[in-house]
Predict the 3D structure of the following.
Amino acid sequence: MVSSTGPETEVGLPPLRAEQVPAEPAGPSSGARILRLDRIRHAFVALEERDFRIFWLGQMVSVTGLWMHTVAQGWLVLVLTGSPFLLGVAAAARSLPVLLLAIPSGFVADRYDRRWILLGTTTTSMLVTGVLGILTVADAVDVSMVISGAAILGVSNALELPARHGYVADLAGPRNLANAIALNSLLFNSARVVGPSIAGILVALVGPGWAFIVNAVSFSPLIVGLLLIQRVHVPRAGIAARDALPELVRYLRREPRVAALLALLASQTIFASGHFILGPSLAVELGQRAEGLGVMLSAAGLGAVAGGLRLAATSDRAQRWTLLLTAGLALAFGLVGVWVSQSYALALGFLVIAGWGAVTFNASSNTIIQTIVPDRLRGRIMSLYAVVLLGLMPFAGLLLGSIADRFSSTIALGLGGLAYGLTIVAGFALVPALRRV
């Protein structure tokens, strides 16, 4: 029997009120989409901070130009000299100032306004790369000018690196620090995919000088962004210059986790950075030219992007020592694979593995270190981080460049990968603190 005055109901039962009607359950696809969107938002949560977002976007352009400069500089040195050893010397010229100025630059970053430090170093880098680009386009450049320009950029980098790492913490705040560090790693390694590819095409079509000029222009968005940031500098507690180094040494003695991670990062730079230092000669050995070099560096960057995305999505979870160990061994395996394969196509796959290992180990170490270290020491600790990643490049360039001159670039990569792998295993076996990160 059907009621004529209301909705259809079963005989003998009162009509259901609206709130009693069970809602149609959401399908599994709807729940999965919500979960995916939540994960995507979480992966980029630090970008909700306005000032960090402006800084991050400005860096995106400038770092792409930086990778273009790296490819163009290496190719120019190889064209001018034909020497893998001088490739190492050029890399050393850019890295040696970071080694020599580590403690002073960390002291400056701890004491003064980090934004104005970054404005000064960015403007200097723009001018140097612009002049080098004009000289190269005019065919008025020689290897001594390239190395001199690299040395000036090295001084700028020495002051910029600890200030930048500290400024990321200033802008993101402690709640989003891990995510901000992961996003910065993602940015740098995404640029490593795009920058070398663009540089390879530019160098092949119009020469390395235009890559330098494009790099000079790419600093403009970062300079504008730094001027737009609203965060006001809050002076930190005064630090006497004579106390800066002793306080740092005391802290490293009390905190073996930070000391051990810095030591392993140093071994990575010395033994496992051959694909950056020897990239041009490695490309030639594998039958490639400038375009092939760009693709090789982009392959390493592709793996690095995968590692950066994973870390950004899981930045709230403690990074366990097993991830660090796996990442270190992956980097070693990738470099040895390039040596053993002696094939350009296979080398690209091994470089993807190496790129994932490098960025996962570096970014995870960075997050752990910045989470542990007190703010008054952040600039000095991050200056040491810059030293072990860049300041030790002179030793890496001389060591790996000498091996490449004597044997080949693939052998230099493989032997370096073996040495780094052994160091990673020994570090985690012999230092208990590393198994508690």
In short: Residues 137 and 207 are 8 Å apart (CA to CA). The radius of gyration is 25 Å.
